[in-house]
Amino acid sequence: MPVAELYMSLKGQGGPVKGDCEAEGYEGQIQLFDWSWALDVDSDNPQSKKAQAQPTMFMFSKYFDRASTPMMNALRSGEVFPEARITLVHRIDLGMTILVILRNVRVAGYDLSVKSDKSVDMDEDWVLDYTEVEIQYVARGGGGAKVFRMEKKPSTDMKLPFRNPPMTEAEEAIAELQKQAGSRTPQPKQDAKPTPKPPAKPPAGPAGKR
């Protein structure tokens, strides 16, 4: 068992995105093997008083698992996840735990690398955009948590999802057949409304009566 382990919980509108992790306490989460994140000064002159620190997007690597295709679909559709939690756990005495919480998360990039030798290795690199980051440091043995929190201007559009991909030739052919079938479907005839009869005239009174 490695000394340090990385797990990610990704919560979507329809529930959590399931991974293949079987570690106790983290069952069903997504197991990572590294991640990177940074704070950069967003200015041409870092010494300027107007220079402000800006957080970068969150990048991580993992193996291909059952969370991969749902995350690809989220990248394609532009789905925004309410929250992602990345936990670093040290399996040693007096170890520490680091928790990274990202809010309003959007998958912004993906790269797949496949290597085949005696076995096939499928490594993935992912990029997450977000609007808020929170980092908690908890030392083993107590003493309270140390917390860092910062908002981030999203680098991607968090409001408008990506457009759906264009239809394939087969999908276009099916859509055309459905359209033609719909145009040939006979429409039910509507019964003609009867012409209203004029009201009957009242009978004439006796002759000579006024």
How would you describe what is shown here?
The chain is mainly β and 210 residues long. The protein has a single domain, classed as Pnp Oxidase, Chain A (Roll). The chain is 12% helix and 41% strand. The strands form 2 sheets. The protein has a 6-stranded antiparallel β-barrel.
Low-confidence stretches: 160-165
Total number of beta strands = 11
Estimated helix fraction: 10-25%
Total discrete domains: 1
CATH superfamily: Hcp1-like
Discrete helix count: 2
- What is the percentage of strand-forming residues? 35-45%
Average predicted local confidence, pLDDT: 82
Look at the structure and give the CATH class. Answer: Mainly Beta
Distance between the first and last residues' Cα: 119 Å
Q: How are the SSEs ordered, and which strands pair?
A:
Blueprint: E1 4-12, E2 15-16, E3 30-36, E4 39-41, E5 53-55, E6 58-63, H1 68-77, E7 80-90, E8 96-116, E9 120-129, E10 132-139, E11 145-151, H2 169-184
Short key terms for the protein model shown above:
210 residues; Pnp Oxidase, Chain A; 11 strands; mainly beta; 41% strand
